[in-house]
Write a structure and sequence with these properties.
The protein is mostly beta strands. The chain is 13% helix and 37% strand. It folds into 2 domains: 39 residues; 168 residues, Electron Transport, Fmn-binding Protein, Chain A (Pnp Oxidase, Chain A), CATH 2.30.110.10.
């Protein structure tokens, strides 16, 4: 038995269930009917009705694993700041661009955001398994005049094309200059152009990165992280 109901999709504020094998919903906008098995009904969540914490839990528990940017910046006083961010990714290769989102702390810009806006440059480090514990330690609340690099025993090294030092222990460093920035509510978004990369010779092979040797770590929801795990090789199909 099939039940049919007509509903504008925008009005569906929750999952619609009926006691039958199938449920069908007709979109009055596209005039199409979509039928589902009752067991496969999805939970519909309107994100703009959620508190920030609720939205954060859903996003970080769904979009994963997320790459981690371990970012160093330099303050006006010369303090070398370091902090990890998982709202981060590569967005283009020509020119090479990365994007970084830094949420505000009680409506105040974090040290990383202030420093990037002031110096217009920063260094991104890719987090590997051997660096994870120390990187996590830098996420503690330190006063602006305290260097997380110094406090956690990391080793600063000069950069080649920016004034912000990098971290010696990282297997990959990306020296970035600020391309553009955007503030959305309580989030500072930075797009950086990668000027120079430094790659550990032990993971650099034929112009590419050996990801198994890199042993990269990704961020999951809550306090959980993931290692690389099983690798699946799948070529794109030929043009049809």
């Amino acid at each position: 038995m099939i039940h049919r109901v007509s509903y504008p999709l925008k009005a569906l504020n929750q999952s619609f269930r009926v006691k039958s094998d199938l449920i069908c919903v007709t979109s009055l906008v596209k005039m199409k009917t979509f039928c589902y098995n009752e067991e496969a009904i999805m939970k519909t969540i309107h994100m703009d009705t959620l508190a920030n914490r609720e939205s954060y839990r859903l996003l970080t528990g769904s979009i994963l694993p997320r790459p981690i940017a371990f970012v160093t910046t330099l303050s006006e006083e010369g303090v070398l700041n370091a902090a990890p961010f998982s709202f981060f990714n590569a967005i283009a290769s020509d020119p090479p661009l990365v994007i970084l989102s830094v949420s505000m702390d009680k409506d105040k810009k974090k040290d990383t955001a202030r420093n990037i806006l002031d110096k217009k440059e920063f260094v991104v480090h890719i987090v590997s398994e051997d660096l994870l514990k120390t990187v996590n330690d830098t996420s503690a609340r330190f006063a602006p005049h305290v260097s997380e690099v110094e406090r956690t025993g990391l080793t600063p090294v000069p950069s080649a094309t920016v004034g912000v030092p990098g971290i010696k222990e990282a297997k990959i460093r990306l020296e970035c200059v600020l391309e553009t920035t955007l503030t959305v509510k309580t989030n500072d978004l930075f797009i950086g152009r990668v000027r120079t990369m430094h790659v550990d010779e032990g993971i650099y092979e034929d112009g590419a990165i050996n990801i198994e040797k890199l042993k990269v770590v990704g961020r999951l929801g809550g306090a959980s992280y993931a290692t690389l795990g099983k690798i699946i090789h799948l070529k794109r199909p030929d043009k049809r």
